[in-house]
Prior knowledge:
With 273 residues, the protein is an alpha+beta fold. The protein folds into 2 domains: 4-75, Multidrug-efflux Transporter Regulator, Chain: A, Domain 2; 117-271, Multidrug-efflux Transporter 1 Regulator Bmrr, Chain A, CATH 3.20.80.10. Helix content is 41%, strand content 25%. The chain contains 8 helices and 11 strands.
Amino acid sequence: MKEFFSIGEISKLFDINKKTLRYYDEIGLFKPSFVNKDNNYRYYTLDQFQYLETIKYLKELGLSLDKIKYNLTNLNSEDVINSLEEQNNIIDAKISELQLIKQKINKKIIQIKDSTRNDLLETIREVDFNERQAVRLRHSIKTGYDIEFSLRKLIKMSDNKIFLTYGLVGVSISRDDLIDRKYDEYKSIFIMIEEEKYDKSLIKIFPKGTYVCIRFKGVHKDAPPYYEKLINYINKQGYEIIDDCLEMELTDPSLSLTDEEVIMELQILVKKS
C-alpha cells in the first residue's frame, strides 16, 4: 500500500488546488506529515485523509477556516454543535433574504409585463391600492438631472441595500401644488420597498385607498398635460385630493429605452364625496 502522497496527488484525490493546500499548511489547519528538506516537497499520509475530508465537509457547511481549525483542534462535541447551530441560523437568514429577492423578481416580472399593456395608456382609472411603503428623500427636485442625483443620494442613505433589486422609483408633487396646478417642482423622491428594514426616518407609508391614475408614454417633463387630465376628472367627479401625487416610472430602469418608450403613471389619492 502506498505510504506517502505528494501535494499534487492529494490535490487530485480531494479536488483541492495545491495553492489552497499550501495555505492550509501556512495557517496550521492541515499540515503535511513531513516535508523533504532537500526540495521542500510536502508529503501526506493515509491517516490524514479523514481529517482533510472533515475540513472539506465543514467548509461546505459554510464554517470559516478559523472556526474549522478551532473545532478540529479542540475536538469538543459541544463546540462543534454550537458552531453548526450558528451556521444554521446564518443559512436561515440567507434563505429568507433569497426568498425576498425571489419575491421581488416575480413582482418585477409582473411589473414589466403590466407596463407593456397598451390598453391602459392614456386611460383614467380608479384603482384601489392597499397600504404601501417606500424609502423617501424629501427635498426640492426641479430637473431630470436632479432626479438622478437625488436617487443616488437616497440609495446611499439606504446603505445601498436597494440598488440591485429596488422596486418602483417615483417622485411626488405636493397636494397644495396639485390644487394650484403647479407641476414644475417635485417635493420628494422615493423607492417602493417590501419587507426590508431601513432607518425609520426614511420610511413613508402611502395610505390604502382609491387612487385616480393615468399612464402615458414619455418622461417626467411630459407629465403636466396628464396632471391636467387627472385634476379635471377629479373636479368633475367631485372628489377631494387628500395626499401628494405619485409619479412613477413603470418600465424597468435597467432597460435601455428612448424617452418615447418609457411608461409613466400618475396616482392621486382621493376621497369620494
